[in-house]
Structures are given as structure tokens and as C-alpha cells.
Queue: 3 jobs
Job 1
Amino acid sequence: MKNQELQGKWDQVKGFAKEFWGELTGDDLDFIAGQRERLIGQLEEKYGMSREEAEKQVEDFEQGL
């Protein structure tokens, strides 16, 4: 899924994102606003993930949509 697709569907997938990553709050999701890089950064920060792990999880999430 390309960044534009994620942004376009963001309102639809916020709930799924919150289920997938329970540590993300509504404010976090509003800040991310469908931007892939912001999502990766929030995962790194909230979960202490490496960039590679965060990117992998985002890819897995995108494929599950």
C-alpha cells in the first residue's frame, strides 16, 4: 500500500490500528494522520522498536487491510 492510499483510508483504519497497536492513543493516531513515516516513528517511540521492526510491522499491517 502506498503512502497516499494509507492516508486516504486512514479514517477507516484508525480503529484497526488501535487494536493492532494498543499503546497508540487517539491523539497519537490523529498526529499520524495516515502518514507512514509518522506511524513508524510512533512505533519506535512507544514500543522501543528498531526502525526495521517498526517498518516490518507497518508492512504487515498494510497487507492485512
Note: The helical segments are 3-20, 26-32, 36-47, 51-64.
Job 2
Amino acid sequence: MNASIGRMYTWVIMLVTVVLFLSGSVWAFKEIRFAVLTDPHVSMPAQNTQDNVKMEDSSVILFQKAIEEVNAIPGLDFVLIAGDLTKDVEPWNIDKLAEMLQEIRVPVYCALGNHEVSPIPGKDKEPSLASLVGGSKHTVTWALQGFGFQGSRGYYSTDPVSGLHLVVLDTTKVGTWGGRVSPAQLRWLDQDLYLNQDKLTIVMGHHLLVPFHEKEQKEAWKNFYLENAEEVIALLEKYPQVSLYLCGHRHVSTVPKEKNGIWYIEHISTLTYPMGYTIYTLTPSQFSYEVKYLEVAPELWETARQTMLADPFWRPEGTPEGEEGNEQVLAYQEQREFKTFSALLRFQK
């Protein structure tokens, strides 16, 4: 009798093990929470920094506040930072950035942005810019080992939690604030996605892939978008597990855009009006997010708001002058209809 009971228990344990294994192979997570920060442009105040549309002199204060608020979020699994980490890859700003990232209490995964490529000052730039001391983007990757980067390469992939795959692209292009994904990186991306088809996949890069608004056709804004976006999109669409492409660069509040089942989402900057970050909740079948504005001094908000309104570069094509035009600019920057958002994911096991 005891032997029979023992055998029965053995079979029960084996059956439970198989069930648990199979259920784990379907989904390894039930719910994930993560934050997306982008474009902090960390800048120690210097001769060539100021608070304007990019709140450079206040960038450390703003990013520090974002870190404090993110650290206070219960149940957060990790943080993504979608590029433009420093002002212009100055050594002192890289040091300050690395110091600040160490304060975040959960794993952090960073992407390179166009400001991680040494600036090439034009002949018409003021003298303070002509004497900038920059560095290679590989200086950034080596300084940020452990924040996603492993070695000097600017792109990588990892599994932040079991069942979730994260791919981080290097969309930088030397000599421009536009971007491109190199042929070698595309080959790597194809192989990486092929090998991870059983995992829900998030892809992060700095530059945008799709226009999120009809007014984004402004010629002066073309460098917000990746040069070979269609090539990258075609590769992402090839693999059904790719459900989200997350980016920064645009400096307006968070906006989602769906194309052929993939959600392309650009994110609010900590640096530029309306200054904030985005909190995601992800399940195997859907995602939702909420934009959070930074709780900082009113005078910082007013400076950011007024400098945004005063700079013609940031005004969408056809925006009238005066109060009516100003309201349109602010509405465009705030994108309040997308301050909270949720949608189903295309990838289902």
C-alpha cells in the first residue's frame, strides 16, 4: 500500500511539474510595470547652456526629480531611457549621468540618441559652441556598462523579465541629428528576432519610425524620423512577437500610433515642456500607460512654457500667431487626449 501511494505521489508530482512547465512556456509573467524616461540631456551648467526650449541649466534638477518620482512607484520592474542622455556627450556630463543612473532602484536600460554623437559645430555657430569638447558615443556605452550596454556596441538585447524580450537599437548617424540603422545592425536585428519568436518583444530606439500627426510633415522636422524607417518597419512586421516600438527624440508628450499591429509610441521628455515621464502596465494581452508631469517649481514650468512658445522651430506648420496660435502649440505639445492610453497587443501565444 505504501509503495502504491508513493508511486501515485510520484505521478502527481510529475504531472504538476509538466503542467507548470507548459503554463510557464505559454507566459512567464502576468503583469509588468515599467517607466520610460527620455531626452534628459543631462547638462552641468556651463558657458554654452541655458534654460530655453531645452531646459539645459535645469536638466539635472529635472532628471533628479524624475528619478525620485520613479523610485517611489511601487512594484516597478525596470526603467527604459530612450536616448539623448547628455547635452553633447561632454565627459563631465557623462560622469554626472552615470552617477544619477546609479540612484535608480530597479534595472535601467538605455539607448543612444543623436546627442551621444560628438557635435560638429557649423561655421556660423557662436564661439562657445565651436570649442565644445565631446567624445565618441562608445565613451558613453563604456561609461554605462550595466545600464543595458555590454561592451562598446551601441545596440543590444536582453530579457528584463522571463518571457519579455527587449531590443535596443542604435539609431545614431555621425554628422547629423537625424538617424539610420546600419546594414550590419539590421542583420543582427533579424537574427535576434528570429531566435526569440516565443517572447513578447519591445523594441526601443531614439528616432521615430512613423509620423504620429499630419502636421509632422514640416520639412524642418525630417530628422526626427529615421532615414531608413520603412526598412526597419518591414523587419519588425516580419516577426509577430514585436508589439511595441518605443522612442523619444520628438520632445512632445507621449503619443501612440498603430501600424499593421505594431504600436509605435514616442515619449514625453523630462527636459522640454510639458516635462514628464510615462508609466506602463503590460500583460500578455494588452498594455496601458499614464503620463506623469514632473512636480517641480512653478517658475520652471513657466520658463519651459514661454520658451516653447517663443521658438518658431517648434511651431507646427500653419500655426497662426497670437493667443490662438499659442494655444494650438501648447495643445500640440501636451497631447492631452493621449495622457492615458490602453490597447491590445498583436502577439498572442
Note: The first strand starts at residue 32 and ends at 37.
Job 3
Amino acid sequence: MLESLIYFSPVTVLLIALLVLMFGERDEEDAYGCFRFSRIMLLLSFVLAVIFYNKTTVVGLTVGNKFTLLFDCMLYGAAMALFYPSRKWFISMNLPAHIFCGCLFLTVLSGSLLISSANFALTAGCCATLLISNYVLLKQNIGKKEIDFGSKLYLFTAIIGMILLAVAAVIFYEKSGSLMYTNLRTALEIGKNDLLLFAAVGMAVAVFILLLGLAPLHFCSTEILGGTTLPVFVYFLCVPLSAVWGGFIQLNVNVLEPVLGQLRLFYMGVALLSVGIGAIGSCSGQNIRKIFAYGMVFHLGIVLLTLRKFTLNAVNSGFIYLFVYLLTMYGICVCLFGLKKKGEYLFMLSEFEGAAQKRPYISAMLLIFMFSLLGLPPFLGFLGVFSSLNYLALHHHFYQLIYLLSMMTVLAYAYLQIVRTMYFEDKRASFDRADVGIYTAIFLSMALMIVIALQPRYLIFGFRTMLEALFL
């Protein structure tokens, strides 16, 4: 009993931190203290999660191996990376941060369990918790009518998603007598042509598409993110994705493999639709956050297009693209934290006029990160794009390859509009002085990208070794 409690200490630490943030005594204006406590507790949980990565297996409920460790590292890393610039935002705005930090802990807790889930009941519960956490964060933007409407829309969609999860769980239980992944897989192997069972599969997949922000359910994120506060914007673009992708891959490989032949065409349709809507949508507005939100739909569409067969090679190529995207997107978001006027962080593209003259270093780094996001050599993004394009070419998916390249050109136009505004619109605008810590975060992000770009083979080999644990 004591041994089990020790092995599950990462979850225990997260629960304690969450309870303290939600119900403990707090100074409503002490954002610094709140973030300091959160950073210490999250780091402690992460260290324990790494130490006991293969000891947290509960038969019929969770599994722990190198695959779960890999996605846990990405989840914890994204959460810890978000703490520093977000702290600066809350301190500068003189706002309480306990709800934001509490939701972040709730996301890490449910996300970590989702990654290691081996039971659909746990998977459904974690997905529902993520939907609730996302909604609570969106509610912190109340005060703007369009955001308030967007949060209500997300709440309605989240409720529908939780109903779908509950119905799917009931059907799975009736058909297999259990919600364990192994039993569900057996039931799918026996009842491949069972329409009710396949409908339950569709319900579960639909919720994951919602959480990932893929088309046609992208509107729940893209339309809302354009007006959210910057920490919430960065959260949606960087933090939950690692957990949701990890859980989605586990579900497909361990449960849905018998029906992947039927799902493959659906996945390809969702991926191609996401790529097209993401590229075109990024060119349709002047809100820079909405541009990057639609860019997220584009890039995650490529990830799904690459790994839709869920073989080891496909998952490896898709994961490399996802990792590079998250790292590059974080660099862009940190640059956005460094650009503000009169205490307000920028929303509209026109507000970036003259940024290159007033903030040359941040503008230059933003330019490099965007070029990397487009996959241009010699930037790190080329590694991610090459892994996906190479996989499509090796498997003779040439029509998809041509479509992908054409949509990348459309997305490039949207990013070049940002470059043109910053560098060629000579407006005498004034920007607030950026905190030294912002430059430090940008430098560290760039340094990490350079190190990975110089020695990519070690990273790729390490990723593949850890992903192999899923297929053993």
C-alpha cells in the first residue's frame, strides 16, 4: 500500500497544489507568490513522474512506459514554460492568478492521467475535466461581449462532448462488459460491423477532434482565441495538445486498431479539411492571435494527416512535427509577450507597424520563429516539415503532398503579412519597454532550437526509442 502511494506521488503533489490554490488562504494580489508556489509544486511533480515513470501501472486502469514518459515530459515542459511569461502578465495587470494556476494544475493532472490511461472510463473522465478546465479559463476573459459569447458557446459544446463520452462509455460497456482497453479491442475485433459499437467509436473520436481544435470543430477555439488574454491564448496553443495527442494515439493503437481501416478515410478528410481551413482562415483577418490560431489548425491537420495509419513510422513522423511546432509556437508566443503599448498587449495587425524599428531584437526573433513554423531551411521547423513530407512521399501520397505544399504557400502569405507590417510599415509608434526576462526566455527558446537543429539525429533516435514502447 505504501509503495503504491509513493509511486503515485506525482499525482498526489498535483492534487495538493490544486487544493491549496482553490481552497487555501491566498492574497488576491500576490500573483508572484502564487506562481512561485505553482512552479515549485509542478517541478516536484515532474521530477517524481520521471523517477517513477514505469511504476505507476495499475492493471485495467493505467500504464506506464517510455511512451507515456515522452508525452508527460512535453506536457510538464509546456506548463512550466508558460509560468514565467504568464507571471509577468498577471503582475503587470495587477490581477489574481490562483484560478489560472489552478486550471493549469488541473490540466496537467487530467492530461497526465489521459496519457497513461488504459481504461475508457478514465479516458472519458480526463477529457471531460480538460473541457471544464478550458471553459473556466475562457470565463476569465469575461467583460468582452464577444468572449463571453464564445465561452458560452464552448460550454455548450463541452456539455455535448461530455454527453457523447457518457453515451460511448455505456455502449462500450454493454458490448464488452468492461471499459478496459484490452476488452474493448477484443469487442471491436469481434464486432467490426456492429453499427452501434462503431457509433460509440465515432463519439469518442469526435471529442478528441474537439479538444485538438481540428476542423470542422475548430470554431470553438479559433473564434474565441482572437480575443482572449495572452496567457490563455498561449495555454490553448501549447499546453493541452501534448496530453490530448498522447491519449488519442494510445486510444487508436490500443483500442481502435481493428477499425482503423474504416476510420482512416475519415481521419484523412478531417486532416485535409483542417489544413485547408487553417491556411485560408489565417489569411482572412487582421487579428494576429486569430492568424496563429488558424495556423494551429493547419499544423495539427498535418500531424493527423501524417500519423493517421498509426504505425510506428507514422507516429514517429507526426510526433516530430508536433514537437517542433510546439517549440516554435512557444517562441512566437514569448515574442508576443514582449510587444505591448501603454500596458496593453497587441491584438490587431496594424498595431505591429514600426515594431522592427522600435523593438528590433524581438521582431527579428519573431521573424525567425515564423520562418521556422513555415518549415524553411535551415531553421528547425524544416525538420518537422521534412519528416511529414518525407513520410507522405515514401508512401506515394503525392496528391496529398501537392495539396499540402499549396496550402503551405497560402499560410506563408498570412505570415508574410505580419513581416510586411513590422518591417515595411514605417509608423512612428511607441512600444513599452520589454522585461529583461522576456529576452531571456526568447534566447533560451532559440538556443534550444539551434542545439536540436545541429544534432537532430540524437533527438530523432531518442523519440523513436520511446515511441516503440507503445507498439511492444
Note: Strands lie at 340-341, 344-345.
